[in-house]
Design brief:
single chain, about 450 residues, alpha/beta, Urease, subunit C, domain 1, TIM Barrel, eight-stranded mixed beta sheet, five-stranded parallel beta sheet, about 20% strand, globular
């Protein structure tokens, strides 16, 4: 039986359309979009739900930790604090944390997520699927659409053995990693060699080939690359090439690949990324939080490069704030305005840019309101003080520059409403379980 949702305005790939109804099938996909002549609507302005193209959900538990200055504080000192927490998390803990993180994503306008999952083994080091299954169950409980990207992690840096605090992440043999992929079911899967510092780039093509035997030919492939200056410097010292140069040399990149961060990519490297058709997955709030730097998104976009956004460390989860930081970061870098805008304004092209990139990154029909895509929606609040006086493109411009998750009236996944005015359908149960779990995990850290 079809579900019908009616809106005064919707944003389709062709632009804003007035008075439409969406017919949604039992699988949560849009069957058709038709004219609506009535006066009873389910909402004012419906946008395609934003895909979250890069998340480490367990790091939601890091909020408030790792903020004490330690020498020349950087990403690397924060990473040590993260390891301290990661060693304590068991499957039950991870399920609670994942449920909360994914619920917060829905509240923040993300309706699907690519989970870059590397907290694999149990706290005692035992291998298994329990940790991955905890993430999958957390997504089910929260009601978010999931693409799970089990991460291959083998070394502790260029030519370095993984440390004791990294052992929960490590699969020493490719076959062990592929076995994990084969044992997971009921979810969209992809692969994620962690980085060229944690995986020998010479074997990434073998990983991709082996994954085809398990997943078929079409699946998302993600990798961290050139996030930190020190990473680039060490790669140059060890290999004589930058991380992106090394990746291009060893891997036949195409539209199924997403390069996460690419913060310190050179102009020539961004041109190569565009020629290969990869998606640049940017995480502006996390990249600012960790002091990574700024990817030259405006230049990449000008030549047709595809961009998605992710919440990464999940310290702050808000889709509109990610987009605002993306645009404002480029304004600060270039000292000019409207870096990712076009003649229609800023909101529409920026929202659609990230949605299109997110669809590629997740390998699912998300991020667009048209037949065949999932009915994942973010509905803006007509009564918002920020949006109320405006229509269409101006309302979306205001949402990007002055709005927040508080301006979202409802969030739907597969045509089912999971958030209404900031309240998730699971409500306070999630909050209670999460609070108790975090108090126990951080005690003594």
């Amino acid at each position: 039986m079809s579900t019908v949702l009616r809106f005064q305005h919707i944003l389709t790939p062709d632009g804003f359309e007035r008075q439409k109804r969406l017919l949604i099938d039992d699988m949560g996909r849009i069957e058709s979009i038709e004219d609506e002549a009535g006066d009873a609507y389910d909402g004012w302005l419906a946008l395609p739900g934003m895909p979250d193209a890069h998340s480490h959900c367990f790091q939601r538990a890091m909020v408030g930790l790792g903020e004490t200055a330690v020498g020349e504080d950087s990403f690397w000192s924060w990473r040590e604090a993260m390891y301290g927490l990661a060693t304590r998390i068991g499957p039950e803990d991870l399920q609670v944390i994942a449920t909360r993180a994914f619920s917060d994503m829905l509240r923040g306008g993300f309706t699907s997520v690519a989970e870059f999952h590397y907290l694999h083994h149990l706290p005692d080091g035992s291998p298994g699927t329990e940790m991955a299954e905890a993430v999958i169950e957390g997504a089910r409980l929260a009601g978010i659409r999931l693409t799970l990207l089990p991460v291959l992690y083998q070394s502790g840096g260029f030519g370095a053995v993984a440390t004791s605090r990294q052992q929960r992440f490590v699969h020493r043999r490719i076959d062990d990693y592929l076995d994990l992929l084969g044992r997971l079911s009921g979810v969209t899967l992809g692969i994620a060699p962690h980085s060229v510092r944690a995986v020998d780039p010479a074997i990434i093509a073998d990983i991709e080939s082996g994954a085809r035997e398990v997943l078929g030919d079409t699946f998302p492939r993600h990798i961290h690359v050139s996030e930190q200056r020190l990473e680039v410097e060490e790669c140059l010292e060890f290999h004589g090439k930058t991380p992106i140069e090394l990746l291009v040399e060893h891997v036949p990149l195409d539209h199924q690949w997403s390069l996460v961060h690419a913060t310190h990519a050179t102009g020539m490297e961004t041109e190569e990324m565009n020629r290969a058709g990869v998606t640049a997955v940017l995480c502006p709030l996390t990249e600012a939080y960790l002091g990574d730097g700024l990817f030259h998104a405006a230049a990449f976009h000008r030549v047709g490069g595809r961009i998605a956004v992710g919440s990464d460390s999940n310290v702050r989860i808000d889709a509109v704030e990610e987009l605002r930081m993306l645009e404002y970061g480029q304004r600060l870098r270039l000292q000019r305005r409207a870096c990712l805008a076009d003649a229609t304004g800023l909101g529409r092209p920026l929202w659609q840019l990230a949605c299109r990139g997110g669809e590629y990154a997740l390998g699912q029909p998300v991020g667009r309101l048209e037949s065949g895509a999932f009915a994942d929606l973010v509905v803006l609040d007509k009564d918002s003080a920020v949006l109320a006086p405006l229509e269409g493109g101006q309302a979306l411009d205001a949402f990007i520059t002055a709005g927040s998750a508080q301006d979202i009236a409802a969030v739907y996944v597969g045509g089912r409403r999971v958030v209404e005015h900031g309240a998730h359908e699971r409500g306070s149960v999630t909050d209670h379980d999460y609070g108790a779990t975090i108090r126990r995990l951080v005690e003594g850290l």
